[in-house]
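Hi,

Apologies if this is the wrong queue. I'm a grad student, and the batch job for DYW domain-containing protein from Solanum verrucosum produced an output file that my downstream script rejects. I'm not sure whether the problem is my script or the file. Here is the sequence I used:
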Amino acid sequence: MNALQRSKFCNLCNARRRNLSSIADATLHKSDYEEHNVYGEYKNSIILPYLHRAVQECAKQRNAMTGKSMHTQIIKYGYEVDILTTNMLINMYSKCGIVDFARKVFDEMPQRTLVSWNTLMGSYIQNRDEDEALRLFVRMQREGSQVSGFTVSGVLCACAAKFAVLESKQLHGFAIKVSVESNVFVSTALLDVYAKCGLMKYAFRVFDSMNERNEVTWSSMVAGYVQNELYEEAIMFFHRLQKSGIEHNQFTLSSVISACAAMAALLEGNETHAIVWKTGFGANVYVASSLVDLYARCGSVDEAYIVFSNAEVKNDVIWNSMISGLARNARSLEVMTLFEKMQLAGFYPNEWTYVSVLSACSHMGLVDKGRIYFAKMKKEHNLSPNVYHYSCMVDILGRKGLVEEAKDLIENMPFAATASMWGSVLASCRVYGNVEVAEIAAKHLFELEPNNAGNHVLLSNIYASKRRWGDVASTRKLLKDSEAKKERGKSWIQIKDKVHTFMVGERNHPSIIEVYSRLDELLVGMEKLGYKGETEHDLHDVEVSRKHELLRHHSEKLAFTYGLMCLPSTAPIRIMKNLRICGDCHSFMKFASKVTRREIIVRDVNRFHHFTNGSCSCGEFW
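Support response: The file is valid. Your script probably expects a header line. Output copied below for reference.
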């Protein structure tokens, strides 16, 4: 304000002190009107901008207390009817998480703009109240308010959070009706909601019809494929992204690394890791966590630990990824050490941390240690054990031969038992020869997995070990009369950029004749060192000689032999299998690692087996 304005304002204040009611009095003199106009100009030019800046700063700092104070000043100066000001208040309360206050301001507005509706809807979505966001959108339509692409994309985000397929399809139709379907944000939100609802074909149609795509669009598609366990499609789509010239972001890279981890595709994972360093996302903690998980799932624990150690910033995700990776690869002592380091670094373990630690105790047969950790969950970290923790405890007890206690734990836990729990008990009964508990476990398994022939054969083998031939015959008859079938085992190995799959008795592989010849040579040398085929692990109802032949040609043996033929002499041989590795193949791999002096890594359905110099990391329990 200049000197003249200050003088007039002071005169106005003196006049107000003399007669406070003169402003509202119809008999005001002309000079008083002039002074009042100067005060109004002062308010609009000085006070209102100040209040706007203050409210925006409160929203930025999430300072609700000062924000409420500014709201009081707004009411004091009569700006509660100003649309721009009230929109700022709605935004400020939304950013502070006080949605009820934002709604009260919204409801008291004499007139609303598109910004008012969008801001409040966004507030509900950010605060995970998707139902209210959808109701507000319906009210918006009934009141005839205009919509924008931002409105539709926001409501689609609410549908994605609720997995609301029907509403999403309706909104898709609405977007076409109001001609906003070509908006890149609307299209991206549409394909994202379809992906989250498991409708990847719909998501791809939206993507394919888009005239304009940004990095978020591509990232959403890759993430969608991964979320729906379409890992090969995710990797192929990522290759398409590379050709498009769109820049990578940390979300895309994290998703494609997760796809490589799920498929144990180490070659593609290494290539993506190179892209990570080239683009500078190596320092991103979520990308680093995905890399740790990738290497751990591929059995490359040392590489996983290098990534973990080099991470500049560590959060609970990367700590858990590393602990889980060590547990998966039977590095039990390192799991417990890292568990303590995690807490010393100021991070609290969660449910999944304890699953890894209990799994490590299971690998080493540490019953007392397992019990301590199981009790520690609730006592020190207020975590209630879930079905996975109980499953680990069943494994721990079973490994040490405490099958009765394992059975009692299952029967008294506050959850319904899973097939894996009773399967663990049955496997332990076979090791320790407990027929009574084996029969109980088998009975439950026959109900939970009526089509799994392996349970019948395992029970039959337990009977056979006790020479109860009558029970063996009845179990075999029950299997024959049932519709249970054993899933056909297959193993695969990656050589360069191609995955080679083998089945038992494989005949279709182009190099199968050479594979069989090399395997026969290998078996001759191994048998001289004491290897002998364990026919009790073959589940086929055939003659013993035929069982020996089938055992010789198990899928993992064929995959190993092909890897031995094709991979460099210093490279580890990595084999993946869709079932649990049988006892004979486990024995074969131990002998093979000693004879060939190669590191062999087998990832079966349960865990990793690292074979070196005639021994396995699993400690003969899997």
